[in-house]
Amino acid sequence: MRDTLSFSVLAFAGLGLWAQPTLAAELPNLPSGLVPQLLEEFVEVKPDGIFTYARFRFVAPELSDNASLDYEALADDFLVLCEQYALPKLSDQPEPIDRVIISFSDRAIEFGLSDPDAIQFFEQFTLKSGACIWEQF
């Protein structure tokens, strides 16, 4: 059984992640030049029985319009978002976060559903000593 905490639950649980839109100005500048919008961020408490995950899901419609924005072009963006956006948001969390998952999609897709026409990229990081360590998916 998946125990997912959404923004509204997180806010009331005192975990500090609030349901509010994130403006592009609040996101760090990404090496690729991509300017994504935050779709959602939430914590999954041990859905696999082992780790607690923080997920940060972003939408970037330009992924479907620009063939040069492939994984290789976006690879450094994941680390920047983990270190400069996710880590600061998670620093005060009472629930220890084991993994951060950052994802980009060219369209909003409900979490857990698939869309074969969507362009999506994902990366996972282990949090260790205040740093994001890339984990091969």
TrEMBL record:
> InterPro entries per the record?
DUF6497 (IPR045467)
Q: Which domain of life is it from?
A: Bacteria
Name used for this protein in its record: Acetolactate synthase
Which organism is this protein's natural source? Lentibacter algarum
Instruction: Cite the source lineage.
Output: Bacteria, Pseudomonadati, Pseudomonadota, Alphaproteobacteria, Rhodobacterales
